[in-house]
Amino acid sequence: MNFKKNDVFIYPTDTVWGIGCSLYSEEGYAQIAEIKNTAKNKPLSVMFSSVHDIFSSFRFPEEVTLDWLEDFFKLETTLGLPLVSAKIKIPKWATAESDYISLRCLDSEIIKSIYNEIKTPFFTTSLNLTGEPPITTLNEARQFHIAHASSTHLIEGQNLKELSGFSSTIIFLNENLNFEIKREGRRVDEVKNHLMKLFC
Length: 200
Known about the structure:
Layout: E1 8-12, E2 17-21, H1 26-36, E3 45-48, H2 51-57, H3 66-72, E4 77-82, E5 100-105, H4 109-118, E6 122-126, H5 138-148, E7 153-154, E8 169-173, E9 179-183, H6 188-196
Parallel strand pairs: 1-7, 3-5, 4-8
Antiparallel strand pairs: 1-2, 2-6, 3-6, 4-5, 8-9
């Protein structure tokens, strides 16, 4: 792929097509906002390629195990954690005024290949203009790339799985195991049941 530091890229997730750049690229972060026609200080989720990386990059309550996290991220989810729990450097501009950072993790060869190329976690948000539906097909992603983001990389991959078309369920969890559902995705009931396992 041969990415440069500030490159922006388009790629498939498990739910919809996404657009992202390195966690440490303020230029790429601003370009994504310009492409999507959204506020430049809107916090974006951050993608990791493995649960092990997340587990080593943040402090968790002892009830949150590696196995629990692995199962959690299989449910089309985003996990919000307090910024103070981060062991890695999070740029101040990356989270705007929020005290939380939102994390995603997918078991995907495309995600792993991006991660291996740029050597950092990367921002992830839905590929669409603000106010329009997220993009769910390769053909739509190609059209968007040509019309709105021709300077970015389009990563098509091979043997793409059908995307669910639904937004992820967003859960904010703090160090006291208090959680808040910020957005309900299609598997929210499974997510709720999984959260209850923390209290067993």
